[in-house]
C-alpha cells in the first residue's frame, strides 16, 4: 500500500499552491493540516482536513498548534509530509520530523529573490527542499529547483 501523505499549509496562497499539486496527491491517501478560514472550510467539504490553531508568531498559539499537529500526525500516520508553508505548515513539519516522518518543503512561489522565514527554517531539516525560482539556488544549495507550481 502506498504511503499516506500529509499536506500541511496555511490558507490563502499557500493552499492555492498545494491545490496545484492535486494531480499528484489525489492518487494517494492524504489529508490536510491547516487553520480554519473560509477557503479551508470549503476544502473540508471535499477533503479530510484537520484544523489547527494559527500560530501567528504567538508562543501560546504555536504550542497549541504543535500539540494539534502532533495528534493529527500520530492518528493519521503519514509516510511523508508535504508543505508549501507557512505558519501551520511549518509547525506540522517540525512535529512530523520529531515523529520520524519524511519532510518535503516547497518554498513559496511568492519568494522569487529572498527566502521566507518558514523556508529558512524548514531548509535546516527537510529531507527534500524545493524552490520555485532559479534565483533561490544561492540561498538553498542543497535544494532542488522545481520550477513554478502554477
Question: What's a quick, concise take on this entry?
Answer:
The protein is of the alpha/beta class. Helices cover 35% and strands 20% of the residues.
What does this structure look like?
This protein is α/β, with parallel strands linked by helices and 150 residues long. It has one domain: Glycogen Phosphorylase B (Rossmann fold, 3-Layer(aba) Sandwich), CATH 3.40.50.2000. The protein is 35% helix and 20% strand. The protein has a seven-stranded parallel sheet with strand order 3-2-1-4-5-6-7. The mean pLDDT is 97.
Task: Looking at this protein, list some descriptive labels.
Rossmann fold; 150 residues; alpha/beta; 6 helices; 7-stranded parallel sheet; Oligosacch_biosynth_Alg14; globular; 20% strand; 7 strands
Amino acid at each position: 500500500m502506498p504511503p499516506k501523505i500529509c499536506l500541511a499549509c496555511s490558507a490563502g496562497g499557500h493552499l492555492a499552491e498545494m491545490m496545484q499539486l492535486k494531480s499528484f496527491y489525489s492518487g494517494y491517501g492524504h489529508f490536510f493540516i491547516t487553520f480554519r478560514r473560509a477557503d479551508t472550510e470549503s476544502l473540508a467539504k471535499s477533503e479530510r482536513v484537520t484544523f489547527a490553531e494559527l500560530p501567528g508568531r504567538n508562543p501560546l498559539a504555536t504550542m497549541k498548534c504543535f500539540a494539534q499537529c502532533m495528534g493529527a500526525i500520530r492518528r493519521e500516520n503519514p509516510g511523508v509530509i508535504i508543505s508549501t508553508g507557512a505558519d501551520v505548515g511549518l509547525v506540522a513539519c517540525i512535529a512530523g520530523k520529531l515523529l520520524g516522518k519524511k519532510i518535503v518543503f516547497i518554498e513559496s512561489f511568492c519568494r522569487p529573490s529572498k527566502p521566507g522565514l518558514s523556508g529558512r527554517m524548514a531548509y535546516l531539516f527537510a529531507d527534500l527542499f524545493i524552490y520555485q525560482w532559479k534565483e533561490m539556488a544561492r540561498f538553498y544549495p542543497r535544494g532542488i529547483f522545481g520550477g513554478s507550481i502554477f
